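Convert to structure. Protein one:
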Amino acid sequence: MLIGEYSHTIDIKNRVSLPAKWRQELGKSVVITRGLEGCLTVYTLAEWEKVSAMFTNSPFASADERGFARYMLSAAAEVDVDSAGRVLVPDVLKTFAKFDKTVVLAGVHNRVEVWDEAHWRDYSAGIETNAAEMAEKIVSRA
Protein backbone atom coordinates (compact mmCIF):
# COMPACT_ATOMS: atom_id res chain seq x y z
CA MET A 1 0.00 0.00 0.00
CA LEU A 2 1.31 3.43 -0.94
CA ILE A 3 0.91 5.81 2.00
CA GLY A 4 2.75 8.80 3.40
CA GLU A 5 3.90 12.22 2.28
CA TYR A 6 7.39 13.06 1.07
CA SER A 7 8.99 16.25 -0.26
CA HIS A 8 11.61 16.05 -3.00
CA THR A 9 13.32 18.47 -5.34
CA ILE A 10 12.68 18.09 -9.05
CA ASP A 11 16.09 18.30 -10.71
CA ILE A 12 17.16 20.29 -13.76
CA LYS A 13 16.53 17.22 -15.96
CA ASN A 14 12.90 16.95 -14.71
CA ARG A 15 13.62 13.90 -12.56
CA VAL A 16 12.13 13.28 -9.16
CA SER A 17 13.15 10.63 -6.65
CA LEU A 18 10.59 8.13 -5.50
CA PRO A 19 10.66 7.39 -1.78
CA ALA A 20 12.76 4.29 -1.05
CA LYS A 21 9.83 2.72 0.83
CA TRP A 22 7.73 2.69 -2.37
CA ARG A 23 10.28 1.60 -4.96
CA GLN A 24 9.80 -2.15 -4.71
CA GLU A 25 6.01 -1.85 -4.86
CA LEU A 26 6.11 0.57 -7.80
CA GLY A 27 8.49 -1.60 -9.84
CA LYS A 28 10.98 -0.76 -12.58
CA SER A 29 8.48 1.15 -14.76
CA VAL A 30 5.47 3.29 -13.88
CA VAL A 31 2.84 5.28 -15.72
CA ILE A 32 2.57 8.98 -14.96
CA THR A 33 -0.32 11.11 -16.15
CA ARG A 34 -2.47 14.10 -15.31
CA GLY A 35 -4.36 13.78 -12.07
CA LEU A 36 -7.22 15.77 -10.66
CA GLU A 37 -6.98 19.11 -8.82
CA GLY A 38 -3.73 19.95 -10.62
CA CYS A 39 -1.50 17.08 -9.52
CA LEU A 40 0.13 14.26 -11.45
CA THR A 41 -0.71 10.64 -10.76
CA VAL A 42 1.74 7.75 -10.81
CA TYR A 43 0.48 4.18 -11.24
CA THR A 44 2.16 0.80 -11.21
CA LEU A 45 1.84 -0.94 -14.56
CA ALA A 46 -0.71 -3.37 -13.06
CA GLU A 47 -2.80 -0.56 -11.60
CA TRP A 48 -2.61 1.38 -14.89
CA GLU A 49 -4.07 -1.65 -16.68
CA LYS A 50 -7.11 -1.41 -14.39
CA VAL A 51 -7.45 2.35 -14.89
CA SER A 52 -7.09 2.22 -18.66
CA ALA A 53 -9.54 -0.70 -18.89
CA MET A 54 -12.28 1.64 -17.65
CA PHE A 55 -11.93 3.58 -20.90
CA THR A 56 -12.09 0.45 -23.06
CA ASN A 57 -15.59 -0.28 -21.81
CA SER A 58 -16.87 3.29 -21.81
CA PRO A 59 -19.54 4.42 -24.29
CA PHE A 60 -18.04 6.27 -27.25
CA ALA A 61 -21.21 8.32 -27.64
CA SER A 62 -20.75 10.09 -24.31
CA ALA A 63 -18.88 13.39 -24.60
CA ASP A 64 -17.85 13.20 -20.93
CA GLU A 65 -16.40 9.72 -21.42
CA ARG A 66 -14.46 10.77 -24.51
CA GLY A 67 -13.22 13.94 -22.86
CA PHE A 68 -12.05 12.25 -19.68
CA ALA A 69 -10.36 9.47 -21.68
CA ARG A 70 -8.47 12.11 -23.64
CA TYR A 71 -7.54 13.91 -20.44
CA MET A 72 -6.13 10.78 -18.79
CA LEU A 73 -4.66 8.92 -21.73
CA SER A 74 -3.24 11.55 -24.09
CA ALA A 75 -0.63 12.82 -21.63
CA ALA A 76 0.14 9.44 -20.03
CA ALA A 77 3.71 8.19 -20.28
CA GLU A 78 5.32 4.95 -19.23
CA VAL A 79 8.64 5.87 -17.62
CA ASP A 80 11.45 3.78 -16.20
CA VAL A 81 12.64 4.08 -12.64
CA ASP A 82 16.41 4.57 -12.85
CA SER A 83 19.00 2.93 -10.60
CA ALA A 84 18.80 5.92 -8.21
CA GLY A 85 15.01 5.55 -7.87
CA ARG A 86 14.19 8.58 -10.02
CA VAL A 87 11.55 9.02 -12.70
CA LEU A 88 11.55 11.50 -15.54
CA VAL A 89 8.56 13.84 -15.56
CA PRO A 90 7.71 14.64 -19.20
CA ASP A 91 7.69 18.37 -20.02
CA VAL A 92 3.96 18.40 -20.84
CA LEU A 93 3.17 17.00 -17.38
CA LYS A 94 5.60 19.30 -15.57
CA THR A 95 3.94 22.26 -17.27
CA PHE A 96 0.45 20.96 -16.48
CA ALA A 97 1.26 20.56 -12.76
CA LYS A 98 3.10 23.90 -12.63
CA PHE A 99 6.06 22.38 -10.80
CA ASP A 100 8.57 24.83 -9.41
CA LYS A 101 11.47 23.31 -7.49
CA THR A 102 9.98 21.19 -4.74
CA VAL A 103 7.25 18.61 -5.15
CA VAL A 104 5.29 16.57 -2.66
CA LEU A 105 4.67 12.89 -3.32
CA ALA A 106 1.54 11.69 -1.54
CA GLY A 107 0.76 8.00 -1.27
CA VAL A 108 -2.96 7.46 -1.85
CA HIS A 109 -3.41 3.69 -1.40
CA ASN A 110 -2.99 2.40 -4.99
CA ARG A 111 -1.36 5.44 -6.57
CA VAL A 112 1.06 8.26 -5.92
CA GLU A 113 0.07 11.87 -6.44
CA VAL A 114 2.81 14.38 -7.24
CA TRP A 115 2.01 17.99 -6.37
CA ASP A 116 3.83 21.28 -6.61
CA GLU A 117 4.69 21.92 -2.96
CA ALA A 118 2.89 25.27 -2.67
CA HIS A 119 -0.21 23.92 -4.39
CA TRP A 120 -0.19 20.86 -2.09
CA ARG A 121 0.05 23.02 1.04
CA ASP A 122 -2.92 25.13 -0.08
CA TYR A 123 -4.97 22.12 -1.16
CA SER A 124 -4.27 20.05 1.94
CA ALA A 125 -5.13 23.00 4.21
CA GLY A 126 -8.58 23.05 2.62
CA ILE A 127 -8.99 19.31 3.12
CA GLU A 128 -7.99 19.59 6.75
CA THR A 129 -10.54 22.34 7.29
CA ASN A 130 -13.34 20.27 5.71
CA ALA A 131 -12.33 16.74 6.76
CA ALA A 132 -15.17 16.28 9.25
CA GLU A 133 -17.82 17.30 6.71
CA MET A 134 -16.28 15.06 4.05
CA ALA A 135 -16.27 12.12 6.43
CA GLU A 136 -19.95 12.64 7.27
CA LYS A 137 -20.89 12.66 3.56
CA ILE A 138 -18.88 9.51 2.86
CA VAL A 139 -20.29 7.64 5.86
CA SER A 140 -23.86 8.65 5.02
CA ARG A 141 -23.50 7.07 1.54
CA ALA A 142 -22.13 3.78 2.87
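Protein two, convert as well:
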Amino acid sequence: MTPKKIFICILLGICTYGCKDKKRAYLIDEITPPLGDSVVSMTFTGDLLFEQGLYDSLDDYDFGTYFDQIKPYLKGDIVIGNQEVPIGGEELGVSGVAFTFNAPKKVADQLPEIGFDIMSVATNHSYDMGYQGVFNTLKHLHDNGIATFGLYAQKEDKDQIYVIEKHGIRIALLAYTYDTNEWIEPEHDYVVKTFLNEQRVLDDEKREMLREDVEKAKEQADVVIAAMHWGNEFTYTLNQAQLETADYLNELGVDLIIGNHPHNIQTMEELINETNAHRTIVFYSLGNFVSAAAMVDRASIEFANMYEVGAILNLDIVKDRDSGEITIQHMVITPIINHFEHGYTNFALIPFSDYSEELASQHYQREFSEQFNREWIAAQLHDLFDGKITLAM
Protein backbone atom coordinates (compact mmCIF):
# COMPACT_ATOMS: atom_id res chain seq x y z
CA MET A 1 0.00 0.00 0.00
CA THR A 2 1.43 3.40 -0.99
CA PRO A 3 1.65 6.34 1.43
CA LYS A 4 -1.32 8.04 -0.22
CA LYS A 5 -3.45 5.08 0.89
CA ILE A 6 -2.39 4.96 4.51
CA PHE A 7 -5.17 5.49 7.04
CA ILE A 8 -4.10 7.00 10.34
CA CYS A 9 -5.88 5.02 13.06
CA ILE A 10 -6.04 5.32 16.77
CA LEU A 11 -6.14 1.70 17.87
CA LEU A 12 -7.99 1.04 21.08
CA GLY A 13 -7.46 -2.14 23.10
CA ILE A 14 -10.90 -1.70 24.58
CA CYS A 15 -13.72 -0.40 22.39
CA THR A 16 -16.43 1.94 23.53
CA TYR A 17 -18.97 0.66 26.04
CA GLY A 18 -16.67 -2.02 27.36
CA CYS A 19 -16.52 -4.24 24.28
CA LYS A 20 -13.07 -5.87 24.38
CA ASP A 21 -12.12 -6.35 20.77
CA LYS A 22 -8.81 -5.24 19.30
CA LYS A 23 -10.08 -5.31 15.75
CA ARG A 24 -12.07 -2.11 16.37
CA ALA A 25 -10.30 1.11 15.49
CA TYR A 26 -11.28 4.73 15.11
CA LEU A 27 -10.40 6.41 11.86
CA ILE A 28 -9.00 9.85 11.22
CA ASP A 29 -8.81 10.38 7.46
CA GLU A 30 -6.24 12.85 6.16
CA ILE A 31 -5.93 11.62 2.59
CA THR A 32 -6.32 13.78 -0.51
CA PRO A 33 -7.10 11.71 -3.62
CA PRO A 34 -4.50 12.17 -6.35
CA LEU A 35 -5.46 13.67 -9.67
CA GLY A 36 -7.00 11.04 -11.90
CA ASP A 37 -8.64 8.90 -9.24
CA SER A 38 -12.41 8.40 -9.52
CA VAL A 39 -14.35 10.09 -6.73
CA VAL A 40 -18.04 9.88 -5.77
CA SER A 41 -19.16 12.36 -3.12
CA MET A 42 -21.98 11.10 -0.90
CA THR A 43 -24.21 12.57 1.78
CA PHE A 44 -26.28 10.69 4.38
CA THR A 45 -28.84 11.96 6.87
CA GLY A 46 -30.64 10.52 9.86
CA ASP A 47 -34.33 9.72 10.15
CA LEU A 48 -36.95 11.82 8.40
CA LEU A 49 -39.53 11.42 11.17
CA PHE A 50 -42.48 13.64 10.34
CA GLU A 51 -44.46 14.33 13.50
CA GLN A 52 -47.67 16.19 14.25
CA GLY A 53 -46.07 19.32 15.66
CA LEU A 54 -44.35 19.98 12.35
CA TYR A 55 -47.46 19.22 10.28
CA ASP A 56 -49.54 21.61 12.40
CA SER A 57 -47.04 24.41 11.81
CA LEU A 58 -47.15 24.11 8.01
CA ASP A 59 -49.46 25.69 5.49
CA ASP A 60 -50.85 22.86 3.34
CA TYR A 61 -47.82 20.71 4.23
CA ASP A 62 -45.49 23.18 2.49
CA PHE A 63 -42.07 23.13 4.21
CA GLY A 64 -41.40 26.76 3.36
CA THR A 65 -37.97 27.74 4.72
CA TYR A 66 -37.66 24.80 7.15
CA PHE A 67 -34.77 23.13 5.25
CA ASP A 68 -33.12 26.25 3.81
CA GLN A 69 -30.18 26.55 6.21
CA ILE A 70 -29.02 22.94 5.83
CA LYS A 71 -29.51 22.60 2.05
CA PRO A 72 -25.86 23.51 1.36
CA TYR A 73 -24.82 20.38 3.27
CA LEU A 74 -27.06 18.09 1.19
CA LYS A 75 -24.53 18.15 -1.59
CA GLY A 76 -22.47 15.95 -3.85
CA ASP A 77 -23.16 13.21 -6.36
CA ILE A 78 -25.55 11.16 -4.22
CA VAL A 79 -27.68 12.33 -1.28
CA ILE A 80 -29.39 9.59 0.74
CA GLY A 81 -31.91 10.03 3.55
CA ASN A 82 -33.68 7.56 5.79
CA GLN A 83 -37.44 7.89 5.25
CA GLU A 84 -38.65 6.77 8.66
CA VAL A 85 -42.39 6.92 8.02
CA PRO A 86 -44.63 5.81 5.14
CA ILE A 87 -45.72 8.42 2.61
CA GLY A 88 -49.12 6.86 2.04
CA GLY A 89 -50.87 10.12 1.22
CA GLU A 90 -53.95 11.81 2.59
CA GLU A 91 -56.25 8.99 1.48
CA LEU A 92 -54.76 6.77 4.21
CA GLY A 93 -55.00 9.48 6.84
CA VAL A 94 -52.09 11.72 7.76
CA SER A 95 -50.72 10.78 11.17
CA GLY A 96 -47.78 12.14 13.13
CA VAL A 97 -48.49 10.83 16.62
CA ALA A 98 -48.26 7.67 18.70
CA PHE A 99 -46.61 4.72 16.94
CA THR A 100 -48.55 4.75 13.67
CA PHE A 101 -47.29 7.30 11.18
CA ASN A 102 -48.24 8.38 7.69
CA ALA A 103 -47.06 11.38 5.68
CA PRO A 104 -48.94 13.30 2.98
CA LYS A 105 -47.90 12.95 -0.66
CA LYS A 106 -46.60 16.52 -0.61
CA VAL A 107 -43.66 15.35 1.50
CA ALA A 108 -42.43 13.25 -1.43
CA ASP A 109 -43.11 16.11 -3.85
CA GLN A 110 -40.68 18.38 -1.98
CA LEU A 111 -37.80 15.97 -1.33
CA PRO A 112 -36.01 16.57 -4.68
CA GLU A 113 -35.96 20.33 -4.11
CA ILE A 114 -34.48 19.78 -0.64
CA GLY A 115 -31.68 17.83 -2.29
CA PHE A 116 -32.43 14.12 -1.88
CA ASP A 117 -31.73 11.59 -4.60
CA ILE A 118 -32.33 8.27 -2.84
CA MET A 119 -34.23 7.10 0.24
CA SER A 120 -33.60 4.12 2.46
CA VAL A 121 -37.08 2.90 3.37
CA ALA A 122 -36.57 -0.17 5.58
CA THR A 123 -37.72 0.92 9.06
CA ASN A 124 -39.86 -0.31 11.93
CA HIS A 125 -42.61 1.98 10.57
CA SER A 126 -42.51 0.55 7.04
CA TYR A 127 -45.82 -1.28 7.48
CA ASP A 128 -47.68 1.26 9.61
CA MET A 129 -50.21 1.74 6.81
CA GLY A 130 -50.17 -1.87 5.61
CA TYR A 131 -49.43 -2.96 2.06
CA GLN A 132 -51.23 0.05 0.56
CA GLY A 133 -48.91 2.30 2.52
CA VAL A 134 -45.90 0.46 1.08
CA PHE A 135 -47.26 0.71 -2.47
CA ASN A 136 -48.14 4.40 -2.12
CA THR A 137 -44.80 5.29 -0.52
CA LEU A 138 -42.83 3.79 -3.37
CA LYS A 139 -45.11 5.32 -6.00
CA HIS A 140 -44.97 8.82 -4.51
CA LEU A 141 -41.18 8.71 -4.20
CA HIS A 142 -40.56 7.21 -7.63
CA ASP A 143 -42.99 9.63 -9.29
CA ASN A 144 -40.78 12.43 -7.96
CA GLY A 145 -37.56 10.87 -9.22
CA ILE A 146 -36.45 9.63 -5.77
CA ALA A 147 -34.93 6.14 -5.95
CA THR A 148 -35.52 3.76 -3.05
CA PHE A 149 -33.96 0.67 -1.50
CA GLY A 150 -35.12 -1.65 1.25
CA LEU A 151 -38.87 -1.70 0.53
CA TYR A 152 -40.57 -3.76 -2.17
CA ALA A 153 -44.04 -3.61 -3.70
CA GLN A 154 -43.56 -6.86 -5.64
CA LYS A 155 -42.09 -10.16 -4.51
CA GLU A 156 -39.65 -10.40 -7.39
CA ASP A 157 -38.09 -7.07 -6.39
CA LYS A 158 -36.93 -8.39 -3.03
CA ASP A 159 -33.99 -10.31 -4.45
CA GLN A 160 -32.78 -7.49 -6.69
CA ILE A 161 -29.76 -5.49 -5.55
CA TYR A 162 -30.02 -1.74 -6.04
CA VAL A 163 -26.81 -0.51 -7.69
CA ILE A 164 -26.02 3.02 -8.75
CA GLU A 165 -23.02 3.99 -10.90
CA LYS A 166 -21.28 7.35 -10.74
CA HIS A 167 -17.93 8.34 -12.26
CA GLY A 168 -17.04 4.74 -13.00
CA ILE A 169 -17.75 3.52 -9.44
CA ARG A 170 -20.60 1.07 -8.88
CA ILE A 171 -22.24 1.32 -5.45
CA ALA A 172 -24.63 -1.33 -4.09
CA LEU A 173 -27.18 -0.23 -1.48
CA LEU A 174 -28.76 -2.69 0.98
CA ALA A 175 -31.25 -1.91 3.76
CA TYR A 176 -32.70 -3.87 6.69
CA THR A 177 -34.77 -3.24 9.81
CA TYR A 178 -34.74 -5.11 13.10
CA ASP A 179 -38.55 -5.50 12.92
CA THR A 180 -41.77 -3.70 12.01
CA ASN A 181 -44.31 -2.27 14.45
CA GLU A 182 -47.23 -3.74 12.53
CA TRP A 183 -47.62 -7.43 11.74
CA ILE A 184 -47.08 -8.22 8.06
CA GLU A 185 -49.47 -10.72 6.50
CA PRO A 186 -47.77 -13.83 5.06
CA GLU A 187 -48.79 -12.89 1.52
CA HIS A 188 -46.83 -9.64 1.88
CA ASP A 189 -43.86 -10.88 3.90
CA TYR A 190 -41.50 -9.80 1.10
CA VAL A 191 -42.07 -6.05 1.47
CA VAL A 192 -39.16 -5.43 3.87
CA LYS A 193 -36.22 -7.48 5.14
CA THR A 194 -35.64 -7.95 8.85
CA PHE A 195 -32.16 -8.96 9.99
CA LEU A 196 -33.20 -10.30 13.41
CA ASN A 197 -35.60 -13.13 14.24
CA GLU A 198 -38.71 -12.80 16.42
CA GLN A 199 -36.54 -13.01 19.54
CA ARG A 200 -34.43 -10.10 18.18
CA VAL A 201 -31.46 -12.40 17.58
CA LEU A 202 -29.16 -12.63 14.56
CA ASP A 203 -29.65 -16.34 13.94
CA ASP A 204 -28.28 -18.67 11.26
CA GLU A 205 -31.20 -18.06 8.90
CA LYS A 206 -30.75 -14.29 9.04
CA ARG A 207 -27.00 -14.63 8.64
CA GLU A 208 -27.56 -16.65 5.48
CA MET A 209 -29.93 -14.00 4.12
CA LEU A 210 -27.33 -11.30 4.72
CA ARG A 211 -24.56 -13.42 3.24
CA GLU A 212 -26.51 -14.08 0.04
CA ASP A 213 -27.37 -10.39 -0.37
CA VAL A 214 -23.83 -9.16 0.24
CA GLU A 215 -22.31 -11.73 -2.09
CA LYS A 216 -24.69 -10.69 -4.87
CA ALA A 217 -23.93 -7.05 -4.17
CA LYS A 218 -20.16 -7.63 -4.33
CA GLU A 219 -20.55 -9.37 -7.68
CA GLN A 220 -22.26 -6.29 -9.10
CA ALA A 221 -20.52 -3.38 -7.41
CA ASP A 222 -17.21 -1.92 -6.24
CA VAL A 223 -18.65 -0.71 -2.94
CA VAL A 224 -21.32 -2.20 -0.67
CA ILE A 225 -23.24 0.07 1.71
CA ALA A 226 -25.77 -1.25 4.24
CA ALA A 227 -28.42 0.94 5.88
CA MET A 228 -29.33 -0.66 9.21
CA HIS A 229 -32.40 0.30 11.23
CA TRP A 230 -31.27 -1.00 14.62
CA GLY A 231 -30.37 -0.36 18.23
CA ASN A 232 -32.17 0.73 21.38
CA GLU A 233 -33.88 4.10 21.41
CA PHE A 234 -32.63 7.00 23.55
CA THR A 235 -29.19 5.74 24.50
CA TYR A 236 -25.56 6.04 23.45
CA THR A 237 -25.01 2.41 24.41
CA LEU A 238 -24.73 0.01 21.49
CA ASN A 239 -26.74 -3.15 21.96
CA GLN A 240 -25.55 -6.68 21.30
CA ALA A 241 -27.44 -6.97 18.01
CA GLN A 242 -25.75 -3.84 16.63
CA LEU A 243 -22.27 -5.01 17.57
CA GLU A 244 -22.80 -8.59 16.41
CA THR A 245 -24.42 -7.59 13.11
CA ALA A 246 -21.78 -4.96 12.38
CA ASP A 247 -19.05 -7.56 12.94
CA TYR A 248 -20.81 -10.02 10.66
CA LEU A 249 -21.29 -7.44 7.88
CA ASN A 250 -17.60 -6.61 8.20
CA GLU A 251 -16.78 -10.31 7.87
CA LEU A 252 -18.92 -10.46 4.71
CA GLY A 253 -17.13 -7.52 3.13
CA VAL A 254 -19.54 -4.58 3.53
CA ASP A 255 -17.64 -1.30 3.20
CA LEU A 256 -19.89 1.20 4.95
CA ILE A 257 -22.76 0.85 7.44
CA ILE A 258 -25.17 3.73 8.07
CA GLY A 259 -27.33 3.16 11.12
CA ASN A 260 -30.53 4.82 12.26
CA HIS A 261 -33.49 4.35 14.64
CA PRO A 262 -32.27 5.28 18.17
CA HIS A 263 -33.50 8.92 17.77
CA ASN A 264 -30.17 10.26 18.90
CA ILE A 265 -26.68 10.26 17.45
CA GLN A 266 -24.47 7.32 18.36
CA THR A 267 -20.75 6.87 17.84
CA MET A 268 -18.80 5.63 14.81
CA GLU A 269 -15.92 3.22 14.44
CA GLU A 270 -13.89 1.28 11.92
CA LEU A 271 -13.94 -2.51 12.05
CA ILE A 272 -10.94 -4.44 10.77
CA ASN A 273 -11.54 -8.11 10.02
CA GLU A 274 -9.00 -10.37 11.71
CA THR A 275 -8.97 -12.87 8.83
CA ASN A 276 -8.82 -10.75 5.70
CA ALA A 277 -8.14 -7.26 7.10
CA HIS A 278 -11.29 -5.91 5.41
CA ARG A 279 -12.23 -2.48 6.73
CA THR A 280 -15.82 -1.46 7.43
CA ILE A 281 -16.71 2.03 8.61
CA VAL A 282 -19.78 2.06 10.86
CA PHE A 283 -21.93 5.02 11.85
CA TYR A 284 -24.25 3.49 14.41
CA SER A 285 -26.86 6.26 14.29
CA LEU A 286 -27.10 9.66 12.64
CA GLY A 287 -30.02 10.61 14.91
CA ASN A 288 -33.12 12.47 13.84
CA PHE A 289 -32.97 14.62 10.74
CA VAL A 290 -36.63 15.67 10.91
CA SER A 291 -38.69 15.40 14.11
CA ALA A 292 -41.03 17.46 16.26
CA ALA A 293 -41.39 16.42 19.89
CA ALA A 294 -40.38 18.37 22.95
CA MET A 295 -39.69 16.38 26.11
CA VAL A 296 -40.29 12.91 24.65
CA ASP A 297 -41.97 11.01 27.47
CA ARG A 298 -40.14 7.74 26.73
CA ALA A 299 -36.72 9.34 27.11
CA SER A 300 -34.64 10.65 29.96
CA ILE A 301 -33.96 14.39 30.08
CA GLU A 302 -30.57 13.80 28.45
CA PHE A 303 -31.98 11.97 25.46
CA ALA A 304 -35.07 14.16 25.17
CA ASN A 305 -32.53 16.94 24.64
CA MET A 306 -30.51 14.90 22.13
CA TYR A 307 -33.73 14.05 20.25
CA GLU A 308 -33.39 17.53 18.74
CA VAL A 309 -29.79 16.96 17.54
CA GLY A 310 -29.01 15.15 14.29
CA ALA A 311 -26.05 14.63 11.98
CA ILE A 312 -25.35 15.01 8.28
CA LEU A 313 -22.50 12.84 7.03
CA ASN A 314 -20.46 13.85 3.98
CA LEU A 315 -17.78 11.57 2.54
CA ASP A 316 -16.00 10.55 -0.66
CA ILE A 317 -15.75 7.10 -2.21
CA VAL A 318 -12.39 7.03 -4.00
CA LYS A 319 -11.25 4.46 -6.56
CA ASP A 320 -7.51 4.34 -7.21
CA ARG A 321 -6.84 4.92 -10.91
CA ASP A 322 -4.07 2.29 -11.01
CA SER A 323 -5.03 -0.50 -8.59
CA GLY A 324 -8.81 -0.07 -8.54
CA GLU A 325 -8.66 -0.11 -4.73
CA ILE A 326 -11.58 1.60 -2.99
CA THR A 327 -11.16 3.85 0.04
CA ILE A 328 -13.63 6.00 1.98
CA GLN A 329 -12.18 9.44 2.56
CA HIS A 330 -12.90 12.99 3.73
CA MET A 331 -15.57 12.02 6.23
CA VAL A 332 -17.19 15.00 7.93
CA ILE A 333 -20.04 15.09 10.44
CA THR A 334 -22.13 18.27 10.46
CA PRO A 335 -24.34 18.34 13.56
CA ILE A 336 -27.69 20.04 13.13
CA ILE A 337 -30.37 21.30 15.52
CA ASN A 338 -34.04 20.78 14.82
CA HIS A 339 -35.14 24.14 16.16
CA PHE A 340 -38.71 24.99 17.14
CA GLU A 341 -40.15 27.29 19.73
CA HIS A 342 -43.04 27.28 22.21
CA GLY A 343 -46.13 25.51 20.94
CA TYR A 344 -44.27 24.02 17.95
CA THR A 345 -43.68 27.24 16.05
CA ASN A 346 -40.81 28.75 14.03
CA PHE A 347 -39.36 25.45 12.82
CA ALA A 348 -35.89 25.50 11.23
CA LEU A 349 -33.09 23.02 10.71
CA ILE A 350 -29.89 24.83 11.68
CA PRO A 351 -26.24 23.72 11.43
CA PHE A 352 -24.78 23.59 14.93
CA SER A 353 -21.99 25.93 13.82
CA ASP A 354 -24.68 28.61 13.35
CA TYR A 355 -26.64 27.75 16.48
CA SER A 356 -26.25 30.38 19.17
CA GLU A 357 -27.00 30.19 22.87
CA GLU A 358 -29.72 32.77 22.25
CA LEU A 359 -31.44 30.36 19.84
CA ALA A 360 -31.01 27.49 22.31
CA SER A 361 -32.73 29.58 24.99
CA GLN A 362 -35.74 30.00 22.66
CA HIS A 363 -36.05 26.27 21.80
CA TYR A 364 -39.24 24.65 23.12
CA GLN A 365 -37.10 21.92 24.75
CA ARG A 366 -35.46 24.57 26.97
CA GLU A 367 -38.78 24.94 28.82
CA PHE A 368 -38.31 21.37 30.04
CA SER A 369 -34.55 21.33 30.54
CA GLU A 370 -32.03 24.04 31.35
CA GLN A 371 -29.46 21.48 30.24
CA PHE A 372 -30.52 22.13 26.64
CA ASN A 373 -27.87 24.73 25.87
CA ARG A 374 -25.13 25.14 23.30
CA GLU A 375 -22.29 24.27 25.66
CA TRP A 376 -23.91 21.04 26.87
CA ILE A 377 -24.77 19.89 23.33
CA ALA A 378 -21.22 20.63 22.14
CA ALA A 379 -19.83 18.51 24.98
CA GLN A 380 -22.06 15.59 23.97
CA LEU A 381 -20.89 15.81 20.36
CA HIS A 382 -17.22 15.95 21.31
CA ASP A 383 -17.64 12.93 23.57
CA LEU A 384 -19.17 10.98 20.68
CA PHE A 385 -16.77 11.91 17.89
CA ASP A 386 -13.58 13.62 19.08
CA GLY A 387 -10.51 11.93 17.63
CA LYS A 388 -12.63 9.77 15.34
CA ILE A 389 -13.83 12.07 12.58
CA THR A 390 -13.91 15.73 11.55
CA LEU A 391 -16.73 17.64 13.22
CA ALA A 392 -18.02 20.74 11.40
CA MET A 393 -19.13 22.73 14.41
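The radius of gyration is 20 Å. The chain is about 20% helix and 30% strand.
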